[in-house]
Amino acid sequence: MATMYLGDCDQGKQPQNRQLYLKPFHIDGLLIGKVSFRDDDRTKWRSFREGTGNDILKLQQFLHKTGFMPRCAFDGVFGYVTQAAVRLFQEYVRSMEHVTDMVPDGIVGSGTMKHVERWQQANKVAEWATITAANPTKQYTDWMNLLHQAKSHYETNPGPVLKHLNSLSKTYSTKKPSDWTFNTNDIHLVGVRRNQTQSTTQRENDDLFFLLINGMVFTFWGSTDSSVNMAARKDEAFLIEGQHEYRFGWHKISEEKKIYRALKPKDPNGVMILRDWDNDNALTDTDLKVTDSHGKIKGMQVNNSINIHWSGIGTSNYSAGCQVIAGKSYINHKNELQDCSKFASSSYGGLTDSNKQTKGAYNVLTDLILCYAPENVTSLYYTLGREDSLALSHNFGTQFATNILKRLKSV
Fold first, then answer.
1. Among the ranges given (196-210, 214-228, 335-349), the one the predictor scored with the smallest mean pLDDT
2. Which helix (H) or strand (E) holds 190?
3. Residue 286, in any domain of the structure
4. Rounded Cα distance, 203 and 235, in Å
5. What's the rounded mean pLDDT across residues 362-386?
6. Claim to verify: residue 86 and residue 151 sit in the same structural domain
7. Nearest alpha-carbon partner for 364 in 26, 91, 31
8. Do residues 292 and 241 both lie within one domain?
């Protein structure tokens, strides 16, 4: 069997119109109109390549049956969803079955095929396939309950930032508390912001992200705050707390050597931000009171460049206002810490054929979203809150975030 990877097609299955086939995915910047796949872990383009036989179809059927590719089209094309599902399978074998030499790179060679065949012989199914929003983990239920409590609390007690938001006629991809939605059929990403009021010119990756998907919770870390040395201006942007709708998309869409999968505001106008108007390198309520030369309060702005993207392995905060996620480690649906440091790259330099590194834990996030999104769902709800909001539920508390972050950084 030949090695299979992004762009491979079964015999007779190469799309006649490659641009049309890729159009649902290539909706940003330089990707628009492209007729090749973007292999973002190798920072290169992959052409469609037609082979013999139907190995891709068999692989897709396996991934679907075992629970890694629920939204499979069985089209015989090794596309983005197939690549994501392969990486999830490889990550599952690595992390859940403790096969330490497995690297989740989305390439199916002889090593990966041995595990495919082993699973087929044993008729195995991933634990992820047995958990659903109707049959969720306790952690998922606890988070959904907290989110509903938060909506009820902040509708009644909005605070300065949300009061200002409520006064605006247009909020674009940002939702007012009365419009927050927490349907279990949707994908939810929760951001927990810490230390935002502390003045510093070099912000750390000290915030948390919780992906709520298909009845499971996966935990990541990074930063929700802008690092001054990354911002193009002194009054750096902070995404406001609350709920925002984000769509599947790409980051660095104007730089061909750096394009990779990320999340973008669903409304092309963007999301609501509050700038560090008083230049104290912190996000405080004072920023809502600063006025311009005419005495008018500057207040919030809409910004279309606040994406959710990768932040290397977490040693540096690569954010100019975006929500950034580290690749070094994550915590899985069973609350088990997973170390990705052996293959996670710290920068673009590691994402080459020779280095064979990946974006590590960040890929787990984007692959889960791509594979487990319900049919025709191309967006998720990102709810950003401050650490003290965790005290709304006895299942969390004020030390919850600190303790989780220590675990994630311990690898």
1. 196-210
2. strand 188-193
3. yes
4. 14
5. 95
6. no
7. 91
8. yes
